[in-house]
Design the sequence.
DNA sequence: GTCTATAGTGAGATAGAC
DNA sequence: GTCTATCTCACTATAGAC
């Protein structure tokens, strides 16, 4: 089933997911690894690390279980690879926080981006949430290394805005904790949100409304006003 | 080890955890069940439902594994019992939201209460979070039943405040989503918070500072001011 | 009521044919 | 590179002695 679709030569049509170092392996290897990672994201999100079985991931990917071990060695290595991809996406939204930008626009763009991520990649968000809740053993170094550093940089930007009197005095680090929690809850706790809203599923307009409410609440909380040009995020 | 401490007669010294119907069983039964539930909370929080083993819970409770099955039947029933206790605590904080109260004081009391809960019962919060993230199969009825109803009631209270012009116009349901996420993240994502703050553990003063920041941000976001008498929550 | 010993199941991982 | 068949082990649950 689906062996070689578009086997045209030349560089890969799109790098889809940026691989650690160079995109090792041939075309079929890359395609299979991508399929396995996509299936793994769904199964790990649904069941957690221990609850997920290699059998379930293999079935979802449409491959025999042994192939997963051939490509990724162990369940833990597959999981770690998946986490790495997710973490890369996680920090991208920080790019919006730059000193030259208008505070309201920058923070609005950050919120909008994180909300879009919750809508389009809820499974990735759940895998990350599950990992952190259960101790973050696989990504401890990342959290206290790269993440801490980038938060420090971006907190300095916000401190600058506060010092210039361009927004209300807030502790930027706790502001980030609040923004992460508020936006990710629409992915991680989606079931609860749906239950309370009495929805079968969350539509795009549900997300637009939620984003609008969060923007108002958070920007007003920062002593800012919602910018007319709600930035597009990316 | 520790067989009968305080076996004085009369009614139970304190009902500790309110049981479903009547506190069925004798003193030792109640004591053992409480020990098992406490151990289960810790193990389920650390490892999730599938990752937790009855062996690990038994060891933590200092009892043989077979006793857990004697008291609770199956792993799933033990888990469901634990979830029931946690849900009861979860809705208690809503008691602060009443029409007669000052909006700023009521919301401040709600936030303060939820933050105290994150500090004192982080394990319970994690068990709940894990359950919701992975589909809330065990508590679906509760979420779309009792929880939805109580949220509707309390949302009406906030709508009333808004209609009276006592606070900024907000969608109360999404406000609750934000308050839940913001306060519970200090329990569920504690590892991440500690990593970013470079703390070995979160102290009481860390929580006081976080609570203060959340109060400022959220109340200002609702067009309110932090009340002078920061309510004690309970 | 309590606990030891064990049955039965399903998991991760791999050998070895293709 | 791919996949079937299988090894080994940990887990839930229970039978049955005390």
Sequence:
């Amino acid at each position: 089933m689906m062996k070689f679709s578009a086997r045209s030569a030349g560089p890969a049509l799109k790098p889809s997911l940026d691989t650690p170092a160079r995109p090792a392996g041939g075309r079929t290897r890359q395609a299979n690894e991508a399929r396995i990672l996509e299936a793994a994201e769904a199964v790990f999100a649904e069941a957690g690390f221990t609850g997920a079985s290699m059998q379930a991931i293999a079935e979802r990917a449409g491959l025999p279980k042994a192939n997963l071990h051939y490509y990724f060695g162990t369940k833990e290595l597959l999981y770690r690879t998946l986490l790495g991809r997710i973490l890369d996406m996680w920090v991208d939204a920080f790019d919006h926080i730059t000193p030259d930008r208008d505070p309201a626009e920058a923070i609005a763009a950050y919120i909008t981006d994180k909300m879009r991520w919750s809508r389009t990649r809820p499974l990735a968000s759940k895998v990350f949430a599950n990992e952190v809740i259960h101790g973050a053993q696989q990504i401890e170094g990342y959290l206290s290394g790269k993440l801490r550093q980038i938060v420090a940089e971006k907190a300095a930007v916000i401190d600058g805005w506060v010092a210039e009197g361009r927004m209300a005095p807030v502790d930027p680090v706790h502001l980030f904790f609040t923004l992460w929690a508020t936006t990710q809850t629409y992915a991680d706790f989606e079931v609860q949100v749906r239950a309370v809203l009495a929805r079968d599923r969350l539509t795009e307009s549900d997300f637009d409304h939620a984003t609008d409410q969060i923007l108002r609440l958070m920007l007003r909380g920062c002593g800012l006003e919602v910018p007319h040009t709600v930035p597009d995020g990316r």
User: Anything to note?
Assistant: Residues 112 and 209 of chain A are 11 Å apart (CA to CA). Confidence is low (pLDDT under 50) at residues 1-22 of chain A. Chain A touches chain B through 55 residues (CB under 8 Å).
